Amino acid sequence: MASVFLNNEFLDRDAALVSAFDAGLQHGVGLFETMLAVRGTTGGSSIVSLHAHVQRLALSARLLGLSESIRVNALAEACVRTVEKAAMEMLGVDRFRVRLTVTGGDLNMLGKPAKSAADGGEDQENGGPTRGGDGGQDPTVLIVAQPATAYPDEMFERGVAAVIADLKVNPLDPFSAHKTLNYWGRLRELQVAAGKRAGEALVFQVTNHLAGGCVSNAFVVKDGVLYTPIARGEEQEVAGRDEFDRDDEDEGGPGARMSGAGVPGGVSGGASRRAVMPSPVLPGITRRTVMDLAGDRGTDVVRRMLTIDDVLNADEVFLTNSSWGVLPVVKVEREAIGDGVVGPMTKALSEAWEAIVFGQ
Prior knowledge:
- By secondary structure, the chain is of the alpha+beta class.
- It has nine helices and 15 strands.
- Strands 7, 8, 9, 10, 11, 12, 13, 14 and 15 form a nine-stranded mixed sheet that branches.
- Helix 2 crosses helix 3.
- The longest helix has 18 residues, at 72-89.
- The chain is globular.
């Protein structure tokens, strides 16, 4: 069962076809977002953090040169319409997995004349989510809503094991911190992890610093402080704060307790002059929610570079994504994390996330 929206129209599953020359198929040129939609008690359905997901995709499309003209509001509305249709067709389903995919469209871009508003390039009449791009190419927009994966309660009550992935991500790869269609390496690592009866695989950078899980962001808890790897877009902010904190520490000021926040790359001189290595870590939507929830509880949240020792010596480790929320990790390879059980901070943040999403 699935509801399919393809290029401004709903289609039956078997009729939802893209061109053999689509850039997503031919070269993996495209982006995607996976979202969770929940049926409300009054019958309506809502997509969790919808606009944050769509805005992240639009920003990635602009930064990577996929499209300068994604209409965020129209794209969000298309997602809502797709979920509404799914909810009407699947009355017994309370949770939906919503997959939004935007590709580069037809590869034959050079042979197309540039479109204008007059001939439909702006898609004014249909109110579609994209405009014709440079050279006249139209991105392919695909939205699929189907029943969400049902994860066993045991995963959250007892936690899961994680393994260390062979895959390494490179901070100098401009595509690594975006949700591109090039996901084969991560899915392969998940296959290997499943073969070892693990729930996820931890991916490290080429510098041997933690990036996250194959399909998740990572957190570690140590002495009541919540740590997470620095994500794309946070590098300068963390670098500037770290410089301030170290200066404050030299003077014995209150910023000393924040020292050690860590920054990627080499530094020299003041924060305004330092060179900062880009982060290959995706700025996760659920990650941001969990950080806010932790802050509301009065928990210190620190973004910094984390090593395998930070992971293995942590009191708690958990992973976040939009499908499962907060997933406890109680073992990495053969090493137990903390006491080998789900920790109190992980449990509290998981319950807080569920309260927001499911209204409990």
